[in-house]
Structure formats: C-alpha cells, structure tokens
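Contributing new records

If you add data, match the layout below exactly. Sequence lines come first and carry their own label; structure lines follow with theirs. Keep one chain per record. Anything else will be rejected by the validation script.
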Amino acid sequence: MSEWKKCKLGDVITFQRGHDLPKTKMVIGTFPVAGSNGIIGFHNKATTKGPGVTIGRSGNIGTPVFYSKDYWAHNTVLYIKDFKDSSPKFIYYFLNTFDFSQFNAGSAVPTLNRNHIHELNVTIPEKPEQIQIASILSSLDDKIDLLQRQNKTLEQLAETLFRQWFLEEVEESWEVGKLGDIAALFNGKSRPKEVVNGSIPVYGGNGILGFTDKSNYSGVSIIIGRVGAYCGSLYLENREIWVSDNALLTKPRHDDCPYFLFYLLKSLHLNSMAEGSSHPLLTQTLLNSIEIIIPPKEKIFAFDFQAKEFWNKINYNQIQIRTLTQLRDTLLPKLMSGEVRVI
C-alpha cells in the first residue's frame, strides 16, 4: 500500500452541481439527461463531456452512474467536473464503495452537499493500477450486461411468438372461458426474516425484496403483484421462492403450460383491471372471472415447447448473472481497499 496516496476526495475529483432542465424545456435529442436515478430523458444539448460520472444530489442521493458519452447533468445530481488525471471508470467503481446517505443535508427531501464529501479522507492507487482495477470490474459488468441483453431478446422472441399464434391468428372455433378455468391462484404469505447468506428470493409486487432460507413455492411459478403501485406486475421464476402477502402466485390448473399462462397474463394488462383508484387491488375473485379465449391444447403445448427452450437459456443466463454479480460485489471492496492487488 506504500504507493497508494492518502488525501481528500476533493484532491482526486471535483464535484459540481447539475443544471436545471424542466420537462417543458427538454427537446428530444440524443444526449441522455442524467437524473438521480439514472437517465430520465434525452435532450438535444449536453452540459458535460463523456466519459463522466454522476451521483444523486437530491431525492435518491449518492448512487453513482457512469456515462461513456456526452450527457446533460440534471440539477438533481452532482457530476464530476474534473477527474484530475484519475481514471473515470475507476472513480465510478470507487464511489460505489461509499455510503453517501450519512451526508444527507436535507430534511423532507434528502440532499447531498458536494462541499461535505470533498472533505472525505481516501486512499487512492496510482493511475496505472486504477486502470487495471477498472478493467477487471468492467469485464464482469460487460459480461453481465451481455447476458441481460440476451435474456431481453429471448423474452421478446417468446412474446412475439405468443402474439402471433394467440392474438393475431385467433380462430372463431376457439373456446371462450374464464381465467379461472386454466389458472390456479394462491395467496402469498407474510414476509419471512431475511438472512445474510439466503439464496431464496422473496417476491413482492415490485419483484425481489430480499433473500431468505425458506420457500413456500418451487418449480415454474408466476408471481402477480396484487396491491399498490405495482399491482398487476408479473414475474416468472423456476426455482424455490417465497411469495409475500402483497403478491399472488398462479400456476396452470390442469396442464403443464406455464409459459402460455405467463404471456396470456401479460396480454391482459392486469393493472388496468385493478379495483380502487387510490390503492389498486387485484383479488382472486376478479382474476378468476376475467373472460379469455382458450386455444386448443395442442397449440398451447406446441407454444410451451418452444417457449421452454427460450426460458431454459434465460434461466441459465440468470444463474451466470447472479454468480458474476456476486463475484463483482465481493471483489469491489477488496480491490478498492488494496486487500487484493492487481499489479
């Protein structure tokens, strides 16, 4: 660690508050507008040359985001005005090791003051080692991104096939029925205690809430958000899971056709059917009564056979994504502290 430099964060980089850009003034263009949660739109002008890094200044404070090209830094972020010969990608990863919430200077709305974080004591390697560290972590992120894009393409292929077979080529001879004729619905249960090394995801209406060591369902399962802002959201899993009480689980009632059922539910736009305006709610009674057109079993089975191939690849990719993510998150603090050296 002798060649690592001890200094203030403000000696390494300079933060600057972003620039006002009301939605009414935003002109659609090619430059991303960097907000506290990431990209919030695209504008025809940029304030900052890429590569660049922002962190949330107001609202969602402290979350680092990397921009490879020119962008507009919104006033809800602090952006790095001067990297002072540091590696931008290294700085992005370095900032991920800080808990900036402790510097919240706001009351009702969390706010981050750049002058406070400039005074942080840090230890920084020389630029060649910065570049090496960033290269290792970037290679993991690039692989994760590639797998995520592959999964998105595979999901789109399965959905396109569903739309073609069951929405665009509907035949008059197909049976009319209720969703409850083909789907069995189950209520979730109270959220269990999360554990540090838990591997079983706990699902709520907005996806994975945490991890535990217990499950209440397994196999191919469809989770439906049943209440609140995420009412009608859908998730497909093929492993042990815990479905919490703000979600429902559904499986095929009689036959093994989970992928047909999943894409059927997506096509129904369940959020628009929720009861109540201030607090939307989907009940089993409402879902069971939805009128649907039921294709012949042979066509359903043919679709599930093809969709299963797509989802087997998706599930394999998801396992790799989780492994790579865990490796990156384990390496990050070790590389940034010098516990693990690269040169």
